[in-house]
Each structure stands twice: as C-alpha cells, then as structure tokens.
Amino acid sequence: MAAVTFTRRHFLETSALAGAAACLPSDAAAWWQAGRPRPTAAQLAWQRDELAMFIHFGVNTFSDREWGDGKELPSSFAPSRLDARQWARAAKHAGFRAMILTAKHHDGFCLWPTRTTTHSVAASPFRAGAGDVVREFVDACRAEGLRPGLYLSPWDRNHPTYGDSDRYNDVYIAQLTELLSNYGPLAEVWFDGANGEGPNGRRQVYDWPRVWAAVKRMQPDAVVFSDAGPDVRWGGNESGVAGDPNWSTVDPAKVPAPGVSGPGIIDALQHGDRDGTVWRPAESDTSIRPGWFYHPAEDGRVKTAEQLANLYLRSVGRNSKLLLNVPPTPEGLLHDTDIARLNGMHELLRGWFAAVAVNRETVSLAGRVREVTLTRPSPVALIRLNEAIARGQHVARYKTEGFDGAQWIELSRGTTVGFAKIDRVTVPTVVQRVRVTVEETAGSANPSVRVNVYPPA
Ligand code: FUL
After folding, report:
1. 315: phi then psi, degrees, rounded to nearest 5
2. Which atom of ligand 1 is nearest to the CA of 66?
3. Which atom of ligand 1 approaches the CA of 151 most closely?
4. Model pLDDT, residue 140
5. What residues of the chain score a pLDDT lower than 70?
C-alpha cells in the first residue's frame, strides 16, 4: 500500500469514509456479498458532518422556562438583535457542519409566519410582525455552508385541535408542508415523541407513518430523526454520550414509534443491534448548558472546552454524531461564554488530532490485522479507527497494540468501530508501530479499517 500522510487539514476537512474507502483491501469484492444493511447517501452525509448545532429558541427564551404551557403571549417574543448569521458563524468556526432549529417547541409558538395558527412570529413585535426566524436561519446556514435542519414538536400545548387526533394531525402535516416546501433543501427533520394531554383532556394519537411519508415526499434527501428513525435514531440519553458497543444496525420492532417507553428500549437505542436488519445510526444530543433554552441563571454553568472535547470522543468517537445545543439569549444572539467554549473545544480537538504519526501501512493477508509504522517512535495518546461503513458495519471486537522494539504491548480494546472509534491510550510506552487486530466480526466479510495514530498534543 502506498505511503499515507494525513495532515491536520485532512482530519478537519475530509470525511473519514473517503480515506477508508481508499484503503480497501484487494479482496474488496467480498464486501458486496456480505448482505448486511448499508447506509443511504443521506445517512452517510449526516454522519460525515460529525458535529451539528441545536438551536432552542422561542417564547421560552423570554419566559425563562424549559417547557412553555402554550399560554405565552406572542407579544413576549421580542429578540432585539437577532442575528442568525452570528449563530452560523460561531458554529462554522468551531467545526460544526449542520444546524437544527426548533421551528416549534411544545408551547406551540411557530417561529415562521404559518397559516395554521395565529400563535406565531406574525403576531409578535419581532421585525414588526413581518419576521420569519426559520427563513433567517436557513439563509444563515446556507451562507456559511452549514446544512440546515428543523425540529417540529408534535406536542403542541397551544393549538386548539391538539388531542382531537385527526384534526390536529391535519394541522401538523400542514405545518410540516410549509416548512418542507418553502425553505429549500433540509438535511435533517427532527421529531421527538412528547405527547401530553390536550386542552380537551384527550390524548393525541400521532400518525407517524403519514408524517414520515410527507418528509420523504417533500424532502427526499433529508434524514428523518426520531426514537424510531426511520433514518437516524435517538441515542437513548440527553447527555451526548453514545453507547458502547454502538451498532448502526437496529431491529426496527424494538422501538416501534417515537416516545414509546418500556423494557429494553433505552438499551436498543443506545447499542443498536448487531444483527439488525435496518441501518439507523444513533444521534447523541445534549446541551452546552443544563437547560435546552437560555436561562441567565445558567451563565456560570456552561460546559467547559475540555468537557465538550471529551463529549466529541464519546459521541463521534463511538460511531455517533454530536448534536450540541447552544441556546440564543433573549437578544437573539449566542452568549459570549458559549462561543468561547465552542472555540476552546475546537482548539483542543485541533491540538489532539493535529499530528498524525503514520507513514506506512500494511494489511495482513487475512485482512484482520492492519499495521501502521509511525513517522518516528512516540508514545500514543489517541487512536482513531474508521470502518468503511458504506459497505456496512462489521467489526464486533478488536484490540490495538504498539511495538516498542522488543514486543507488542496492548494499547486499547474495543467492540464496535463503525464510522469512527476513538480510543484514548494511557500506556506511556514509546512505540514504533501500531497494529489493530479485528478479533470478531458480524457477517462473514473482512472489515476495512483505517488506523490513525496521534501522539500526545
Ligand atoms: C425533548 C424536549 O422535551 C426537550 O425540551 C428538548 O427539546 C429535547 C431536545 O427534546 O423531547
């Protein structure tokens, strides 16, 4: 195999997958026969983003609450300096590639001038009632080269039809139709399963198959996120930490619909299913602050750069994607502290992954051992493995070792690899070579795994 030199730019700007595909063993044809589920182009693009920013913004920002009750006055929505470009610039600068906005949260207030309710920006002082936050958001994303996504809460504590299932389902589809047909291509449409009681005391029954069909029809290139996918699943917690192991394949019967709880569901969301028949990778969501919406009392409780960089290792570095919420203030701007922490995270990650110490690579005949020779002997701080997931996910168990000149010493052990698996190495030994041995696979194929080795920053 030809010499491989990766640079800082390589890590930051190219997909791991492209590199992995370039390193396919010569018997690659065997892969296509393996018969395991594989991602769609949209799912691959979703995963390559690695980092997406979540924006929770709405009447709760002004009432200082997490869940509005639907009785908020539209007149309370009064951002004085809203600048979606500031959000997008901050995201881009910190290495994010996508952004998702709460077009409507549980309180029912719509951030775009919808025809389905008067409970929207059109009745607010924002831009004298002529504003459209969704429009400003998607425009800002596109101007900064970020892929936009929208969250439309199904639970609606304001709309009078909520709980009257068929009528509300029509309203919900009408809202989706406005969002999916008037704002250009979206990368992700985000649904939660929240389902409270309606004003009439009745429980709303959502029509998820209809919702998903509507997205597929109007935005065929978007991924649909929910507990139950169909394209991307919730990772099972709101702390931004992916499961280990983490299969991108699932058994769809285990999580039949969003918001369903019961034995085994969180486990299925966290870990996926090694023998699952459907490709549905996990998204890890969390907030940079304790709450999803901005609260001034939490200004001193913003996650540190170090905490955020570690979250990257435990989400992206465990075959997931990190959806990190950064909530705008009542002014309509991201807070300076949050921006500083995002930039700090980016600097840390750049430092950790700056110098790739690999200059030569060999693959064993059986394809189960991949060895890299370091540019110069060094201790190892991080090892990043990437599986060629366009052909499915196969690695079920592996170990990594370093050669100190006399013997092979174990550096790390793991289960799944997938899009990326990043191991922190605590063994201080100086090594000349590093090898990964795939000890167990799902399916009969020989996995193609790319190995990158990073010395201490
Ligand atoms: C949950 C909501 O209840 C929270 O308020 C937040 O939006 C979170 C991302 O999803 O379902």
Report:
1. -120, -75
2. 5
3. 7
4. 99
5. 1-34, 358, 365-367
